């Protein structure tokens, strides 16, 4: 198991390097210009000056190398400095966003809390809702509950969030006035009242997001449960005289969770990646919004860094899912 | 006798709701089981054996079945008699595992793969006996000792996949016995196991029954097992009971036609004693059988020398080969035209690998294979493809070896298409002839595999193997998955083809009785090596190698007077065939005890 | 009284990413920064100059501007303090100029400092800006939201290439404005509180301010006018009926004002045909086969119903115009003859010019070249509606139009390698909006001189998009540069405007685009200003009583 | 007396597809889904033959009309007929859905079969799949848009060009799950004895794949297919939302829905039509997929 993990970790390095190169090249090759949003009243010479100030004049490979060094060498040092008060990164040039002229990482770190709050909660809520639905749907296959569950989850799957989001805003914010339509990222939870406020502003985005995730997860859970319900060991368990609840919730569930847990693990990078559309609709201004904003403004360092962080997370969670699989399923042991 | 019976099944009728309307699983079955008695239910596949037993446990409901008629009277431990057919599931839950224990057919899947053996063993105890965890574990340990599992303490913490099939089945038995049920239902508990393990498990059950006085309802389709175990026998046929009686009655004086044909189809070890050549079995209700012995020729068609096949085990950081599975280790034999050489041995001893190596479906590491003068090992890919025209294979599982998505016509025609032997109407004609050859109606050509019975499917596989007019057919457990009656038909068909076409068979099986019936020569394999090789009559009548002798002893005989006891049996588990890189396997050396009868003298690991 | 009215919240659907206007020219950045740092003087809602940090606006009359128009002398108000309590001095002003004019700084507002030869400290409160040549309008540096004064002490280490590294200063500049930054989350939200050292002790009325960014105009409008979560929403580029519907909710009011932004169609006077070799395509070497004909151009203009365009695309926030310089009044021509749509007249004009359909396919030909037009613009819903409408009108005068839209970041990106930039103009006509900075159109009009052609030689840079070239025009532009007298300047500017529009029809102005913002009905003191930051008078805002 | 010979199976021999159809028919949801999908497809492709109003025709006098006889779905802010636009938009959306799905399916099955069947391709191809999984969809799409839009526009005209681009980008970024599933199934299939049997009768690799492997992985592929259509339609609409999809004058359901959300309160029906169309299509296709999976799975069909 350990060798497997280490091996995969080591193999991940060239994969990641390759991915970073691909990302870098792709983005570099894309036309578009960070100066596009500069008003037309600014004369071209000035724009040219500004472009040079961003370091755009250098050749590609030098910028790639610089970026790699900044990303893999300097940023980790900054992190260490941040936690241990050391001074390794003093004076080093960090990855600087063209838009804000500040280190990309600082902004990313700033965005993580609200992303986790909203997208993470949505994920948790979705899991909490989806699993019981999936279990019960499978246990009572083709019952009205199952049919309804299937229908609702497919509707949930088919409604784009930019539509459902606006719909709930119009209903709950505009018509009923229950919840704010705009997420306040500066809100601090200090006491019960402020917690209620936080809850209120989270409800709509969380629900819109959770609807989608629930839809998919419950389908997964159902399929996995169905697979296991027909297994021989279930009959053995029943023959032992164990109660039906125990049979389903202990024997079947434990086995069914194995594939579902890996699916859940593989979905976690998406939490960090944010939910671009939902964030946009509710103005949550998390990582997703950061990415789309950076793309629109052609803020290459930001886009590169974000996409690469995302790639790292995907590779990492792929690995975690594999390891988890081995841990959960005693039959699978990597060596 | 009636009033002391522990369970009575009266006019049981079970139906399943399917999309094609109700299917009757059991039509009308009545019998009873008395305390301390073993009742064997026999019958071919699909005759309703499992459904009856599951009904008694009221587990059919979970499979979509419904008890539409009949009573299931069960004598509760506290003396009251209850009709289980009407009991609610709460009561059933109390009875299941506690008063009726059940053992299932497939030890591989009957255990939950993600829980430890200990956990699964103690579960029932804690539910029914209200034991604490500690108490339950102690009892579990006890149980494991009772079923004679080596190192019981360690087993408790292991997962099912870490145990061998025999050990798993012992765990299942221990589980069923945990609460000392009054009735034990065993649904084909040994079908999936090797003879040696089967013998042990049977003996174990017999002992447990005697020690605890439990009544046993034993389900099987193997008459030899019945002869070993039963006090009384119930014969079932298509959902009905056709005959009931004591073992002796059934074996010595069967009344019903079906019972008789069933018995006739069972090859009995020792039947061929004194005969040099194999001959087809005499079957009930078949007219005009040609029962002539098949002599074959002395003309050598396949010569295998020092064949070795190993599989690499990759591991470590760089995924290099760290060890080898020595699946086939230095075996040599030859096979004559029109004759059958059988390879027997326990599961995992390398029989299949040997067969596949000859066809080069797996690449052998070294050795020589010579088929009718052609050096198979030296062939390149196109030439090898050509060479396979002369040698074909039939696989164990008739369902798995046919493509579920193709019509039978196409499946049989495929080899001829591949080699461009025939096209168009000629192809069609040839396929039709092949169908005739294997006694299948031509109207089946447009069917799909799932529309056929197991025996019919195996005939298709044979027809496909015959399509290319091969000289050699490797039959890898070709009849193991079939019901006895069907098995007999298929065996006869194979022998008929051999007589007619001068086919040579390399027959791979673990069933000694079948091997005795069909072979001219026999090779006994153990741990990748042939430990004993010789003419069938010599090997069976005069086994010299200790392993062969033990194997012979383990084979159940379809005769209630020749029962075996646990004491006779003493098998060591097969050692692992995996050796680290750098291990050098010693060459096999043989001693000729009689003309053509060889015995391995070097270490075989047994 | 300062801080008595609690919190005011502002929503911009574009989020500010930096609070230093010298490093960004985005409106969102400049306007959010204007709450914190201030220039010497600003333009008010009428476009008139009002002093902010300066004592008064220097003019020739009051002697602040030298007679030869080569220098201007600013005098700071007395007793001004930075929000950290230190005094504002003329050194800060000079530093601001040094900061932006640093050759390696990449200053976004460098254009403001064009022609500045030196900035000298006269005394603690006085600075003198000297220009290398006469400047009739010397109000570039330190005037308006784009050119505020920054604190020398804070930015001292941030000169030149180090400018972007001063994150702390860029995100939290010390200023003189009514508010100071508490926390800046780039591209998200800014929280501010009242500046304790603000020069008017009674202002601002609000103790704190929240400046939220992001989302879209609909959501911003909704938050102010429908749910009342926010007090002020910026630039609601929404369909008129959507705004009207939101206003019905009764919580907020949309307000509109007009500046100089004109949506126009540029007609390519050179030939963009892909058949031409690279280097000749869309350059002066190849005149356009039919757009070089004045009558064709005029007919195209006549076919357009500008009033309908306004109604559909802008409503309250737009008005039909025939001018490139629609404001201020002094410079705005009275030309309105293009407003009425006249399809029949356009057809007649073309017939008369001999541009008729000769082969019966419904498309007119000029000298055998069919009037097929490639019409490009940036991707934007309103623009695509316009394209669709205009295509239909043009089809009624026998002109076939192919529509094309290009992502704004490419279209306006100016990448010399891209064939799709608006400067390159590989199309027959293109539509976009442009305006000029401040109130003086001189440099704006000067963009249409012959030497400002974008061409391969200039890496396709240059402002004379439609390749209009008229020596008389160039001459008049030069004269404008020499004229200091306002009346006279106005006359020349109008003349230039007319030359571009009603005389030559080289461009077809469509809509004078105003700006619509919305404020809550409980927010008082809002005066919408399009000549400077919209938040220019945030110090004067207050909460209305009874709410 | 009991009959001793084994009777043949009850049902007469029949074609496999009839069987599939039989099983499919019993799945009510799938049947309704299938019919609905057919209706939608017919409506968007054949509809314009009967409802001949040009979806781009501007009738400025008829702006923002409520549904009426002349305009059953009403008109938009430029007076374009919503029904015609719905059909035109549907034609695009459904075409995008189907073609993108086909592309993803082709790529996914191709990679999956290759990786599963040929051991030596397994490692590289699976790393490639990982690579594509790790490449974030959005920037990739964006880059593809920006990179290839022009050449494609030049080669196929603006509408075809962008269509190809969107289909390609959706297809290229969504084949990975299919590839993984197919690979897994192929790996399992390869261990099945009939593959070994086929090899022993001299079946070549290419024949093996087409005859034995592909038909047996059809069922997961079909399920991916139906899911793929739905995802592609939704992805397209999300792209429109982010301003990266088809140009605004080019109606698709996603674009219509997005444009209409601004008018949610004034003209709710304008949101309703495209929202309904997307949901119905996705729903119907999903049910269709459920039914197909059941129908194609021999285990279920054999029951
Ligand atoms: N879940 C089910 N649904 C439909 N029919 C069933 C089901 N289970 C069993 N049957 C049918 O009931 C009949 C009896 O089956 P049963 O399993 O008892 O056979 P068996 O004698 O145990 O056979 P085997 O030796 O193969 O285990 C068969 O015809 C079978 O098709
Ligand atoms: N492809 C393979 N890779 C690695 N090891 C293998 C492979 N195939 C077989 N083996 C190992 O080789 C040994 C011999 O296997 P083989 O299948 O030949 O046994 P067998 O005698 O046919 O058993 P059975 O009766 O169960 O079919 C076993 O230990 C098995 O685990
Ligand atoms: Mg059974
Ligand atoms: Mg085998």
UniProtKB/TrEMBL annotation, chain A:
Keyword Transmembrane among record annotations: yes
Cellular component terms (Gene Ontology): plasma membrane
Segment forming the signal sequence: none
Residue span(s) of domain ABC transmembrane type-1: 112-321
Subcellular location: Cell membrane
Membrane-topology descriptor: Multi-pass membrane protein
Main localization (coarse): membrane
Pfam families in UniProt: BPD_transp_1, BPD_transp_1_N
Keywords for this protein: Cell membrane, Membrane, Transmembrane, Transmembrane helix, Transport
An example Gene Ontology biological process: transmembrane transport
Regions crossing the membrane: 116-139, 151-175, 195-215, 256-277, 308-328
Transmembrane recorded as keyword: yes
Family, similarity comment: Belongs to the binding-protein-dependent transport system permease family.
Name of the protein in question: ABC transporter permease
UniProt lineage: Bacteria, Pseudomonadati, Pseudomonadota, Alphaproteobacteria, Rhodobacterales
UniProtKB/TrEMBL annotation, chain B:
Keyword hit for Cell membrane: yes
Mode of membrane association: Peripheral membrane protein
InterPro entries linked: AAA+_ATPase, ABC_Ni/Peptide_Import, ABC_transporter-like_ATP-bd, ABC_transporter-like_CS, Oligopep_ABC_C, P-loop_NTPase
GO MF terms held by the record: ATP binding; ATP hydrolysis activity
CDD domains per UniProt: ABC_NikE_OppD_transporters
Gene Ontology CC entries for this record: plasma membrane
GO annotation (BP), single: peptide transport
Subcellular localization, as worded in the UniProt entry: Cell inner membrane
Domain of life: Bacteria
Domain named ABC transporter: residues: 9-263, 302-552
UniProtKB keywords: ATP-binding, Cell inner membrane, Cell membrane, Membrane, Nucleotide-binding, Translocase, Transport
PROSITE patterns on file: ABC_TRANSPORTER_1 (PS00211), ABC_TRANSPORTER_2 (PS50893)
Family named by the database record: Belongs to the ABC transporter superfamily.
Protein name per Swiss-Prot or TrEMBL: ABC transporter ATP-binding protein
TrEMBL record, chain D:
Compartmental location: Cell membrane
GO CC annotations, alphabetized: plasma membrane
UniProt keyword NAD present: no
Ranges for domain ABC transmembrane type-1: 90-289
Bilayer-spanning residue ranges: 30-51, 96-118, 130-148, 160-182, 217-246, 271-289
Coiled coil: none
Keywords, sorted A to Z: Cell membrane, Membrane, Transmembrane, Transmembrane helix, Transport
Recorded topology in the membrane: Multi-pass membrane protein
InterPro entries: BP-dependent_transpt_permease, MetI-like, MetI-like_sf, OppC_N
Biological-process GO terms, alphabetical: transmembrane transport
Family: Belongs to the binding-protein-dependent transport system permease family.
Protein name (database record): ABC transporter permease
